[in-house]
């Protein structure tokens, strides 16, 4: 007598669904602390005295804004001139406290200042995103104890990349959070697969154009003892080596500092490769060209119907007109989705526009079918008040922020 493996097909489907959910449930990663792309000026020293501790702190932050603006202006090719405190209040998006000492009437600190990229660029008269690369999907691979991990579970290496502020980098990183389907799509096994078809599907899912693979191999002398990290910067589906370096820390307690330093140096390697042309466009990651239209030879010239070859070919071309594009756009709320879709659909030549990946409070992806050159679509979006970055069939759009009024009165 044979006993069935499952009492019913419904039971089998239920077990399979539960197993698939178990592979993606739980927190397997950490979201980036800052994906806004703000300009950052770090290591600003201040020493301010005032009547009260609170007044001294506010005065220190105000002084840090002024010093940081001068440094940022010179870094981006400006003359280093100051602007009013009221304008700085509109440009500054955050203060990062690196170290501070607060007394009854004195404030000593080392601070970092974050400037809104679009607003600061408009004041300085430069393009906010012209110096950035195409969107690059980041897959941080950690090898520790012989185990290779990307997003299968949370790692110290992935957390270090999540802490990294990318505003000053020329590389436009796309950093997955490690939750949801990330653990299934982006794992150590995927890095070893050179197949372009699946890679195209993956990077299109995340709105990227290429792949960057920062690798760290951790070696521990004994539990709690020195840790050696061997870092490798790799690129593309073929896992090409860009550069490598080695760092060491005296104890396991210093591992976060070792990894943070490794992230900074890894970013420098990627930027150097970008300037040297090593991160150029990989044609194999572009979608394949559409098939050529097939014309029936027997229907080339049908006197009875009055159709000619030119008419048949023209009709076939019209049926296949339109190229697919992916547009990344900010969605702070549900209304932003409908508004952006409606604006894109109003552009002449757009046949369809629909959101394929929704992330409220972050970047969503829109699939657009357009009759014409992508450069023409870029120009139409810029005319409608968007800042457009990216190239080819992957674009990122942001609302252009108006330049702050230079005559704003200082607030302190």
Instruction: Please name the CATH topology of the largest domain.
Output: Rossmann fold
Query: What is the tally of helical segments?
Result: 12
User: Could you tell me the mean pLDDT?
Assistant: 79
Helix content estimate: 25-40%
H/E element string? Answer: HEHHEEHEEEHEHHHEEEHHEHEEHEE
Please identify, by name, the CATH architecture of the largest domain.
3-Layer(aba) Sandwich
Radius of gyration, CA atoms, in whole angstroms: 26 Å
Number of strands: 15
Low-confidence stretches: 1-22, 302-319, 405-412
The shape, in one word, is: globular
What portion of residues belong to β-strands? 25-35%
CATH class of the largest domain: Alpha Beta
Give the class from helix and strand content and strand pairing.
Answer: alpha/beta
Q: Tally the structural domains.
A: 3
How far apart the termini lie comes to 89 Å
What does this structure look like?
This protein is an alpha/beta fold and 412 residues long. Helix content is 33%, strand content 28%. It contains twelve helices and 15 strands. The strands form three sheets. Strands 4, 5, 6, 7, 8, 9 and 10 form a seven-stranded mixed β-sheet that branches. The protein has a five-stranded mixed β-sheet with strand order 12-13-11-15-14, with helices on one face. A hairpin with a 2-residue loop joins strand 14 (386-391) and strand 15 (394-399). Residues 1-22, 302-319 and 405-412 have low confidence and may be disordered. This is Heavy-metal-associated domain-containing protein. Residues 1-22 form the signal peptide. Keywords: Signal.
